Amino acid sequence: MFLSKNFLENISIRQILLLGLLLRLLAVFFSPGYAFHDDHFEMPELVFRWKDGISFLWTGSDVHVFSLIYPGMMYLLFEGCHAIGIDRPEDMMFVVRLIHALVSLLSIYYAYLLTIRLTGKKDTAHIVALLMALFWIFPFMSVRNLREFFCIPFLLIGCYYIAHHRHSTRSLFLAALFFAISFSIRLQVIFIPAGIGLCMLFKKELIPKAIIFGISFGVAYMLTQGLFDLIYYGDPFANIKEYVRFNSNPVNIELQPQGPWYQYIGTVAGVVWGFPFLLLLWGYTHCFRMAFAIKMLAVAALVFFAFHSYYSNKQERFILPFIPLFLLLGVIGLKDIFENQAIRPWLAKMTKWIIAWFLVLNTVGLLVLTFTYSKRSRVEAMIYLRKRGDVSNIIMEGEVSLQRPPLFYLGKHLAPYVMPAEGNIEQLQKEINSSGQPAPNYVIMAGHKDFEKRVQRLKTIFPSLEPETIIKTSFVDNLAYWLNPKHNQNEDWYIYRIR
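Above: the chain's sequence. Below: its structure in token form.
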């Protein structure tokens, strides 16, 4: 039905882990750059400023809006790189990708263990482990510095311990500890252990265990995020308070991408290639009629999904922690349906076609994304200028709103001047003369639209402007521009020198 029974019986979790490792190592070597603004500027860029004693606070508060535990790990990793002579930013990021790739293998292993614990079936566990190893976005995401993805291994470990058929104090504490670690990385995952706790409270014989789990989570929080905040800010709840304050402010919410309540249904359906979503959803909803531990995880994942569907700030990466649980529970439920219910021949045939559809598209997506250098032009432009060694400042000029350049790869702390397409050239000249910042000696122009007209506009105040080089972007960045030019600018960056 899903895969050859002989194949599933003969493959081992060690082989699946090696396959997952191979794909992640390919991403380590061939997928540098960064996927989202957040996984660069909330990690390497923040640590770059932190290490040099430059403020990275931006919400008007003395407390950073995200937990600093994960950036703190990166801080120590960077310090370790410097200690052994790895100093180039791109080399340090290679080490970072490698560490993330290795940590992500825990997702494969614990998804496998969790499935065995929930079902007692190795063939089902092998299907789930293969999905965790080979799902098209996972190797690419595994080497990113993205909170929403880095929290997943710890989330799955917590689920493994809480799904124990005989809850002991030890298993409850270990579950709470790993949920607390995932919470410290991505605060919104709190809805998953909260959903689990609620399910336990509704089962009379588990009420004492639910209380122990809740107390254990409080202790685990104080040993992780709470202790860090107490030492760093003097308040064990400082980060939570600041995060809630900032994200409950209507003005701040309106600045973020908005979307309807059903947006993430489409996001998840798109990520699993459309038709397979219907099968997995069928399996997932079937989980609500299965054993308590399976039902409990399905409810908890749904609570997490419902919160993000309700909250108006809609960014695709927010839903990433839900994807592994949806795949795992979808497979468990679907396999139970096909093994224990009479399935009409036409439905069985259609299911085979949908699985074939998924395997083909997943393979194509996996091969493309695993070898994608995301945000290539942004990273390579900074590396190029760093190698020139003479940058005093930069003007960022673009056809639409401009993203901040990744100065970490430049190796210098600058305050670049910004010149949008609708900007006033005389105002730019005044800003340069009065800002007190170093004068620019390079211009980076992004996008092709009205290009010559924009160059001539710059030449009115920089008549000696000379082209240096063009940094081309990657296929996937070009694809993102083609799919949504309104929100994605063309990523080719043109570097000009001001003589």
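The first helix runs from residue 5 to 10.
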